[in-house]
Specification:
The chain is mainly β. The protein has nine helices and 31 strands. It folds into two domains: 302 residues, no CATH class; 209 residues, no CATH class.
Length: 528
């Protein structure tokens, strides 16, 4: 997507922007869900234990594929803060019985799904009261709804539950990608047929199905491609007895038949824990959410880039100290220095023990980096049009291998020190640094989206060779006063982007926008 038009194009943000949205959402949603092992966050130091930890801001939110095409990105961020999973939201637990009104839902079909097409590819959907069966009945909107226990009693061969407490199942060979992810949305009021919210866009197939003897909707969506496993299917199942709707995201690695079988096997039970209805996302929020633009900083002045570093410069990586009164105090005891940058055609510079399966997909049968086929697309609006491929280019890929030193300049030993690296493409234009946008750089007004068949692109680190912390991820277990620890980062990028590459070591991470944190820490010029 052409970055300078991103604000205007937000209602139809395509595949290659999803990672940015995921990062924004996960910064606000409780959980610990990592994709390729990288977990990121704000560094904190516990004063009593001198331990450096992260604050609820992890790397990737593959548990839910946020379908931003045709929807307002800001709206989706706000919705998913509450939408993710009722069992994951931190609210006060109510010591109360389930307040689901006076109607006995079991045995009386009071609600049914209603769907309407919006244009060619938009879908409006909602649970509407069946007036023929509600006459004389009293249906009370509850003040609180139960957290649900959701388990799949059937999984295809090779699919396993996530190793955390999320409702996520994936194939072992593609951890935290694809598979099945389950979220919940609260039913909050009776909708009418003329009040159905636009729930999905880019819908190319939709049908009513039966799941666990309940009405459900199955749909499939267009995806724009790329190397990661996307979610191209979805199932909605209503549980009015719990005043909730299951939203089941289905990866492209799961067939329709397997997805329906998994959904049909779900054991959904209420727990004793209750959540106020006001604390969770409600279906009508899809209808009433404000259409606010999603703001991103795509350029920076030379003044804003005043902290730009060269190879060999030392600079501070800020951390946040948690004081005894729970206030946050910034400390500056970790200094970083990029000491060397190398470029290679293979992975000979890497320690094989830290090369994951995703990284291996970038190699050909001879162990060399593949060429990357770049697809130039014209994105549709998801309602009246789909995306169209305009042309393709083929480019070579290169590995950037960065050696970085982390030094404790303070007087105390620091433990579990978080580190993170983003490889960011930027171009200098007059007195401004502008994020590199391949779709805009090709000069074709029709193309506003690109994706590659291989892994080469700017973004988060593909590789790092120091593991620590409780989970053995991107933490330095301990740094004593005056001690230096060396970490190697690597990223596969397109060869024609080597002369545009900068490194951000800000631990909040951001590859598709320029952030205040990255500007404060300062980018490192690693252009080749």
């Amino acid at each position: 997507m052409k970055l300078e038009n991103l604000k205007e194009e937000c209602p139809k943000i395509p595949e290659d922007i999803r990672n940015m949205i995921r990062k924004e959402v996960e910064a606000q949603v409780s959980g610990n869900h990592e994709n390729m092992g990288e977990s990121q966050g704000i560094q904190t130091k516990d004063i009593t234990g001198n331990a450096v930890k992260r604050l609820n801001n992890t790397d990737n939110m593959n548990e839910i594929d946020i379908w931003t095409n045709g929807e307002n990105a800001k709206k989706i961020v706000e919705i998913h803060k509450k939408r993710y999973n009722l069992g994951k939201i931190s609210v006060a637990v109510l010591a109360a019985t389930m307040l689901l009104g006076t109607t006995a839902f079991a045995g009386v079909k009071l609600y049914q799904w209603q769907t309407q097409k919006e244009g060619n590819y938009g879908l409006k959907a909602g649970i509407v009261a069946d007036e023929s069966q509600t006459e004389g009945d009293s249906v009370t909107i509850p003040e609180a709804i139960p957290m649900l226990s959701i388990t799949a009693e059937y999984l295809p061969e090779g699919m396993v539950p996530a190793d955390d407490d999320s409702t996520k199942y994936y194939y072992e060979q593609t951890p935290y990608q694809g598979g099945i992810s389950i979220a919940t949305i609260a039913m909050d009021r009776q909708l009418s047929e003329d009040q159905l919210p636009l729930s999905d866009t880019y819908v190319i197939a939709e049908e009513a199905v039966d799941i666990n003897d309940k009405e459900a909707i199955y749909l499939e969506r267009e995806i724009t491609g790329g190397v990661s496993v996307s979610f191209d299917k979805k199932i909605y199942v209503a549980y009015p007895e719990y005043w909730q709707i299951l939203e089941i995201f289905v990866g492209e690695d799961v067939s329709k038949e397997e997805a329906l079988q998994i959904a049909d096997s779900l054991n959904v039970q209420p727990t004793e824990e209750m959540i106020p209805l006001s604390e969770v996302i409600q279906w009508s929020d899809l209808l009433t959410a404000e259409e606010e633009p999603f703001e991103m900083q795509l350029s920076a002045s030379k003044e804003e880039m005043k902290n730009l570093h060269a190879i060999g410069d030392s600079f501070v990586i800020p951390m946040t100290e948690v004081a005894s009164d729970d206030t946050l105090i910034q400390i500056n005891d970790i200094q970083a220095k990029v000491t060397d940058v190398q470029v290679a055609d293979d992975y000979s510079l890497l320690d094989a023990a830290y090369v994951d399966e995703d990284l291996k997909t970038g190699l050909d049968e001879n162990g060399k980096l593949k060429q990357n086929v770049i697809h130039y697309m014209k994105s549709g609006d998801g309602i009246d049009s789909l995306s169209q491929e305009i042309r393709t280019d083929t480019v070579n890929q290169k590995l950037i291998y960065v050696t970085t030193e982390y030094t404790n300049t303070g007087n105390e030993e620091l433990k579990d020190v978080l580190f993170f690296a983003c490889f960011v493409g930027m171009k200098e234009e007059d007195d401004t640094y502008v994020l590199y946008d391949r779709a805009a750089a090709d000069g074709d007004e029709e193309t506003n989206l690109t994706f590659g068949d291989s892994i080469g692109e700017p973004g988060e680190m593909d590789y790092y060779d120091v593991r620590g912390g409780e989970e053995g991820k991107n933490y330095i277990s301990s740094i004593k006063p005056g001690e230096t620890v060396v970490v190697h980062f690597a990223k596969v990028v397109n060869e024609d982007e080597l002369d545009k590459m900068y490194l951000s070591l800000d631990t909040a991470g951001a590859a598709l926008e320029i952030t205040e944190g990255a500007l404060e820490v300062g980018y490192v010029d690693i252009r080749r």
